[in-house]
Amino acid sequence: MAKLPGIVGAVVIGLGMSQFPEFTQQYQQRLGGAVDELRIITQEFDRAATANGLTRDAALAQYNTTDSDFLEQRGVDMQTVFMRFARLSEDLRVLEGANAMERLQNFAHMSDTRIAKRAWETYKPALPLTAEGLTFAAGGGLIGFTGFSGLFGLLFYRRKRKPV
């Protein structure tokens, strides 16, 4: 009975961790798609600016020289697009070609909430049949067994009294 919490923890955490490789792979695929789309927008803006003899910064500055709140907001929006493109491009650069363990080490590069939300909405858990999935399942099982056993032991530990 004392090992039951550890077994439950091993199963729960192990199953959860076994899904990490596939979820992060799907996140990375969506990240690549987002970077591709942002690249198109950025290149089109830069091409239009160059065609008019402007740099990107000079073109953005023109949005601020108008009395139009709409155009001023569009300039802010475009600056946000450029910053997101730079950030997501760097995230993709770090994650490309990474195995599941490297993706875990670089988890901070999977922090775009819009991409994560869309990946989660379409994600379907699966039985981990890859070496990476099984490795994460085993690691999660060990963490779950140790953690749940320890927690259960702390919560329900009773000191035995020595006879007097």
Q: Could you please describe the fold and organization of this structure?
A:
- It is elongated and about 90 Å long.
- The chain is built from 7 helices and no strands.
- It is mainly α.
- Helix content is 76%, strand content 0%.
- Helix 2 (20-51) crosses helix 4 (69-95) and helix 3 (56-63) packs antiparallel against helix 4.
- The protein has helices at residues 4-18, 20-51, 56-63, 69-95, 100-105, 113-122, 131-156.
List keywords for this structure.
164 residues, 7 helices, mainly alpha
Distance between the termini: 29 Å
Q: Indicate the proportion of strand residues.
A: under 5%
What letter string, H or E per element, gives the SSE order?
Answer: HHHHHHH
**Gyration radius, rounded:** 25 Å
Number of strands: 0
- What structural class is derived from the secondary structure elements? mainly alpha
Broad shape:
elongated
Helix run count:
7
- Quick check: average pLDDT? 89
Short description:
With 164 residues, the chain is mainly α. It is built from seven helices and no strands.
Summarize the SSE layout with pairings.
Elements: H1 4-18, H2 20-51, H3 56-63, H4 69-95, H5 100-105, H6 113-122, H7 131-156
Helix pairs in contact: 1-7, 2-4, 2-6, 3-4
